[in-house]
Amino acid sequence: MVESLEKISLDNFRALHITINDVTPSLEREENKGQFQLKLATPRGEVIIVLDSIAIHAIAMECLERLPELVPDPKPAGFENECRKPARVIADLDDRSIQFLLRECDAGTLINFLWYMKDAKLIRLMFKNMSCSAANQLMHDLDQRWRGQNPDIVSSSDVACGHNAVVTVLKALRKLIAQGDVPDVLGVTNE
């Protein structure tokens, strides 16, 4: 265990694991930087981790996936999960294919699609294949449009936005498959 530590640059680390007991966490937004400080106060000092909004969103999505009890009283999502199922194969595409797909979809469609899919792996994959500024802008727009709204417990008109986005993204994917730009993950050529 590190006894005294002023600052660590994580640029050269592939993984860093530190166990800290008796932690009081807090999250503060840094003004005009688009970054957040995750502060972990302990009896022996404070650890500050600086994260950008993409990392914060990815952590939030992971928490919702791993701790579904954080979502208040969700209605049975069987139907919605069935609507999402055909689009889940997008997460299996390689980076090049994702980049082709991103070029085919407008920002509004992507915002509604990522919100409706509520899939942290898919969100990370999409953001990884965008420029940093495009990913930050999309994250900001996603946050502004859908913050705090679970697609399984919203109005039917909002759910329709999600359904339409899935249909639009799948149409774009089918077009790319037909052109031979991406692998046939939908089984289109076998239909």
Strand portion, in percent? 5-15%
Strand numbers in spatial order across the main sheet: 1-2-3
* Span of the ends, CA to CA: 59 Å
CATH class of the largest domain: Mainly Alpha
Name of the CATH superfamily of the largest domain: Flagellar motor switch protein FliG, alpha-alpha superhelical domain
Might you state the CATH topology name of the largest domain? Annexin V, domain 1
Number of domains: 2
Which structural class do the helices and strands define?
alpha+beta
Order of helices and strands: EEEHHHHHHH
Q: Provide mean pLDDT, rounded.
A: 80
**Largest sheet geometry:** 3 strands, antiparallel
Task: Describe the 3D structure.
With 191 residues, the chain is α+β, with helices and mostly antiparallel strands. The chain has 2 domains: 1-70, no CATH class; 76-190, Flagellar motor switch protein FliG, alpha-alpha superhelical domain (Annexin V, domain 1). The protein is built from 7 helices and 3 strands, in the order E-E-E-H-H-H-H-H-H-H. It has helices at residues 53-66, 78-84, 95-104, 107-117, 120-128, 132-146, 156-179, and strands spanning 24-30, 35-42, 45-52. Strands 1-2-3 form a 3-stranded antiparallel sheet. Helix 1 (53-66) runs antiparallel to helix 5 (120-128), helix 4 crosses helix 6 (132-146) and helix 4 (107-117) crosses helix 7.
